[in-house]
Predict the structure.
Amino acid sequence: MGNSITWSLTEDHPSHYVIYRNGILVDSGDWDSDLINTSIDGLNPGAYYFTIVVFDIYNNWSSDEVIVTVLAAEPTSIPTVTTTSTIPSENDIPHPILVVILIAEIGVVMILLVLLSKQQRGL
């Protein structure tokens, strides 16, 4: 079921009707005092002025205006998951503190080797 405007009008001698949207004729027809409907589906976001004019067989008329405001649809968001992984490459430069620790470890190993060598020689 779509969206529509429905007018309920009564007249002893009904004849016909015309419907305008923003001043442009969008519907017309014979009228027998029944309900008059016009669809408002498919309108783009914005304000619309619907005017109905009904006539009797003596060409007397009556009118009514309805203002319809169409809002933009809320975007449907789909959650997205982003994964970032870093794979070190051979060209990565090590952090300076790591270089200092590595040099210190090499120094400790060298000192231990010298001490062991002296101990084996009996010095």
